[in-house]
Amino acid sequence: MTGTHLDTTSLLGHPGLMQGRPSTRLTTITLHPVRRDEHQAVLDLVDADRLPGQPQAAPADLREALAGRSPIDGALWAGLTDLRHDVAVDSLGNVLGVIATGWRARDSTAVLTWMHARENSAVLSALLDAALARFSTTKAEAFGMATALDLGLEALPVSHRRHTADVLVAAGFASADLWNYMLLPPDALTELLDAPASKLSPALTSRIEKRRLGWRIAVHEGKHLVGEIEIDGPAQGISRIAWLEVDPGHRGAGLGRFLLRAGLGRARRAGAEQAVLYVDDDEPGTARDRTAATALYRKYGFRSIDRLHTFTRS
């Protein structure tokens, strides 16, 4: 076990700590591998950081995460070894935080996959310092892959997790702003799907395919693919739009709206009440410019919830 000393005042206001105890009992926390009897406490930490539009993590999700598996980014998880999941507990046995790390041998990088501590900076710092100290390199990445505990969230929501971001930067990590996290709430979903349907041009045909996580709907002009959407089946009433693209030559003709309605309609019939998507808008002015896509999403009721950042340290 590894003991880490923290500033007592940073812990006294923590909601998980018992009140009325002598402050001297709160000066040290201890890190150890997650035990089975601590699983619910870990789930509570995860839930405390849950974003709007994210399902509540269940015990089965935590078991998958602890096993190093995820339905999304599975190949990235397969590239990690030496996985470890540690909790920080105080002298009273309260679980204050949790961190998950692994080793990526192909480029000799320590990888922080997930971390939660109710945004307590002192606990976050202790978790990060202790977890990364076990690696023989300063090269590290953080929050660069989805986990089984979320709905394809491949980065850190920096507004909702401001203290986590600050702790990473203080430890020498640089952040990269990659994604716009957007949510379509239930009322906007209903409005979009209950509006009059748009029709495809007679020259276009659509086809739906079942996928591992949901469905793909593709629109062709002859043999040429001109638009497609991939959407996951709902988890606790929430579907994730994994991909939507319209050929530049077919934009402005209602094809984006058709695809949104087709994908979301399929998801709603399966139980979806809202939807999320992550717009990779980090390269404006290039072939990957997402300005038009973001405008489409906003037009039909999606709203921005947070910016998603990844972190690296050399």
From TrEMBL:
<dbReference type="Pfam" id="PF00583">
    <property type="entry name" value="Acetyltransf_1"/>
</dbReference>
<dbReference type="GO" id="GO:0016747">
    <property type="term" value="F:acyltransferase activity, transferring groups other than amino-acyl groups"/>
</dbReference>
<dbReference type="InterPro" id="IPR000182">
    <property type="entry name" value="GNAT_dom"/>
</dbReference>
<protein>
    <submittedName>
        <fullName>Acetyltransferase (GNAT) family protein</fullName>
    </submittedName>
</protein>
<feature type="domain" description="N-acetyltransferase">
    <location>
        <begin position="176"/>
        <end position="314"/>
    </location>
</feature>
<dbReference type="InterPro" id="IPR016181">
    <property type="entry name" value="Acyl_CoA_acyltransferase"/>
</dbReference>
